[in-house]
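Task: sequence in, structure out. Protein: Phage tail collar domain-containing protein.
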Amino acid sequence: MSTDATPLRRRHPPRNPAHFLSPRRRAMSSTPYDRQTSFALQSAENPKDQIPGNIFDAEFNAVKLAMDDTQQNLSLIQDDDGALKRGSVGRAQFDSSVTIGFAAPSQWASGVLYTADVNTVFYNSIFYIANTTHTSGVGFEADKWDEIADFTAAAAISDGSITSSKLADGAVAGNKLADGVVANSKLATGAVSTNKVADQAITNPKIADAAVSFTKLAPDANQVIPAGALMPYAGGAAPTGWLLCNGQSLLRTDYPSLFVAIGSTYGAADGTHFTLPDMRGRIPAGVDGGANRLTSSFFGATAALGATGGYESHTLTTAQLASHSHANTLNDLGHVHSGALNTGAFFGSPGGATNVAGNATTNTGSSTTGITITNASAGGGGAHNNVQPTIVLNYIIKAH
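Result:
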């Protein structure tokens, strides 16, 4: 190669050697390939000279740098299988005109501002996204929503499939339940016990109307009002789960909890029945238990559980009257007695001495004194009222 060859012309000065470090040690680069030498110009100016090797090295290093940068950048956005790497594209990579995703769904409600392509709702088991920004009215406006999915035919939860064993303690929390989602048919009998429900989780909006019947509650719910509890009731007919206390006979197998509570204390027609307390025209009193406030002398029976006594009215006997006296009126009229005198017994013969001999007698006529005593009778001998001021109500007893 000629020693007087014209040096190759460089379009840029040589790069810092640090630029050629492994791309793994550098941040992501976006520098494009930068040519170092014009080989066409070099050949034109020096047609007989060999191109120096250092010129090629510099050029190939520039190419390698650009290729390494490209490979490094691709590895950040592309997996080995050529698919776009997960997480490589975020909201910031999209133009502001592009809408990504939508808000978490909620139950549709009136009077709510819904944003197009953002807000989603559940309505009648269908999942919708708003296609128009609007404030909802009284009724659901289907033309302002696009359907995403229809769950009306879905049977994700079969009737009675949610049993106590399927629920972890405290699992039923308010944020897990959409309004009105707890329906009676979804709950197995006795499934919902207190330890399965998080504190304050099941609020009124979460429970569909008439969803939770008494049979769906665990046995500890009976402790609120146990079977056999008695109370006055102003209604004419007993509510569900209660019976009127009219002394009726019931089958023990129909009301096992009630029979366990009261047994045959109030009577039994036979070995398969038991009788309810008969509260018609009666008021309750506590078992005396030796307090001597309700004794058999006055109650009419021993005041044990189930005993009855007392009367609506009572007729007093002489012994029950208070000690007393009566005022009397005495009227004594004046009177006289008449008599006859036998004079022959006193005088002798005339003209001689006077002799008195024999008995002289006087007879008086009969007469009455005229005295009267008036002692007027009182009372009619009838029974007296024995009823305290009273309002008449029904008594009902808890049946289960």
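The two ends are 114 Å apart (CA to CA).
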